[in-house]
Amino acid sequence: MQINGYKIKYSEQELAEMMDHKTINIELAGPELEAYKQLSAGNRKALEHLVTAAKMMNNVALEQDNPHNLSMKKALEEAAINSTHAARALELFNSLNGVAGFNGVDKQPIEVFEGLPLLKGHNFYPSDLSEPEFHDILIAMLTAGKIDEVKNILSARTIVRRDGKELKAIDYTEYFAKDFSAIANELEVAAHYTDDDALEDYLGWQAQALLQNNPEMDSLADKHWAVLQDCPIEFTISRENYDDEITPSVYNNKELTALLEQHNIEAVSKDMLGVRVGLNNFEGTELILKFKQYIPTLAKMMPYHEQYHQSILDGEKLKQTMIDADIIDLEGDYAQCRGGITTAQNLPNNDKLSVKTGGGRRNVYHRQVRMSGDKEKQQKILQRLVTPELHKYYSKEADHIFVIGHENGHSLGPNSEYQNALGSYKHIIEEHKADTISLTFMPQYVKNGVIDAETLKKVYVSYIVGRMFLSARPHQMLPHRMGELIQFNYLLQHGAINFDDKGLLHIDFAQLDPVLHNLLDETIRVQLSKSPQTAEEFVEKYTVWTDISERIASVHRELGIKPYKRIIRHF
């Protein structure tokens, strides 16, 4: 079947197999949620407009991702009225939130249509722009003295297009002016209805940030967003840059890197936009806040902490809010379920102006996402691959505690200057660093009475079994999975974990602490090197796909892998 001249790549039967048997449902919170029932009338109206704004932002993200996304989605929706084949293809499109994307298992991206591949530069850059040509154009422009133009091209907030033999950058607020104006209007109406003063304040700043080509406005909006601790409504416009493969490639070109350093230009990957809407779960938030007070202590325990600045230590007050959220809607970047779905987030990222100028950060945890999964399969994994005495330590709630440590870990360590300098390896190293910080410093929470020794073992076992037991060999565009493979191999090589002659996992809990400290030390040294080559050597050394990993993956395949996600919304 063809849609807009492009053939659907999979048969209806193949799509049915993918969507019916290889998909996990992520059911978001609905009107039956007690927290929703307790909202004031004004906050309910505000929430309605925020959900509308979120859905509008999804169209922006679709256009950022691929120039064909919007037209193909519309055509699929129209065809799906009369065609079950098109309806099935639309399900896959909605899972990927686009015409193509990785699923976390297959080495090549999944394509909904023949001839519409995943683009390395997505729609941030011209689809025919290669990395060598990109580098040559930037070198020529810098040599010609067009410094500001290159800075804009390498900014996180621009769309880049050809301009004769050169390139030009268009700010998001200009490229998406019509969309942003409509979204800003919804935010202003929501601000009018809410009776929460802090939320009203933030929404006003965020609306203005969408209307002005001014990074300072983004910074001010971020600073007002980052202080929302007790607000009943959760609303976030996320700006993260995992998708763009073109921008970080500049650090692989030595001549271009030297010119960028000469002109003090930091290349920051393009931000993919997303929106999260939810309600503050105050009971869950109480647990998360128990970890917060110890972040400054951990900052002083970081390897080589005297060699870099950590914004978390600015001033006497810890500038970090944290909430557990019942999720009502996920759109844009959040809804691109390409190999996974976000369970928590620590924003703004280090490359953002608000963080660089002393603003705070905010962690939000996604209850509905973390509570999803295949529990029956996980029990079978334990039986097949883990020694029986460890089974009692596997716990989804313990994995949540690990995630708290992971998100706090993003606030620690070298800043964006060091992270971005690693080029295409920056996300792998940063996600791996956050994992390792969580595991390394978890015993500190036992010492401080936040968790007990039994829970510590649960965190270790749940992480190793639930995350390090990979279902397929990861690749560079899956930074979380690459980090987990690094840790698995490191622990295995240094004797903290081992497998007996029956192929069952054993953990030497006494060895975990020193081995993890050494791994964290080595990881921070990689970031401090500011060298893509050093990062590449580190990643290559510890991401070897061994027979043990392949055997674990084969068990996953035998039990069935569900790499696709279906977000079920009730608002």
Q: Using DSSP, what is the number of strands?
A: 15
Secondary structure: helix percent: 40-55%
Give the low-pLDDT segments. none
**Quaternary organization:** single chain
Tally of domains: 3
Shape: globular
Average pLDDT for all residues = 96
Number of helices: 25
Integer-rounded radius of gyration: 23 Å
User: Per DSSP, what share of the residues sits in E-state strands of 2 or more residues?
Assistant: 5-15%
Distance, first to last CA: 32 Å
Widest beta sheet: strand line-up:
8-9-10-12-11
Main structural class:
alpha+beta
Largest sheet: 5 strands, mixed
List the helices and strands and how they pair.
Blueprint: E1 2-3, E2 6-7, H1 12-21, E3 23-27, H2 34-37, H3 41-65, H4 69-79, H5 84-96, E4 100-101, E5 110-111, H6 131-143, H7 147-153, E6 158-163, E7 166-171, H8 172-175, H9 177-193, H10 197-211, H11 215-225, E8 233-240, H12 254-262, E9 272-280, H13 282-292, H14 295-301, E10 320-332, E11 344-347, H15 353-356, E12 361-366, H16 367-370, H17 375-385, H18 396-409, H19 416-420, H20 426-447, H21 453-468, H22 479-493, E13 497-499, E14 505-507, H23 509-529, H24 532-542, H25 547-559, E15 564-568
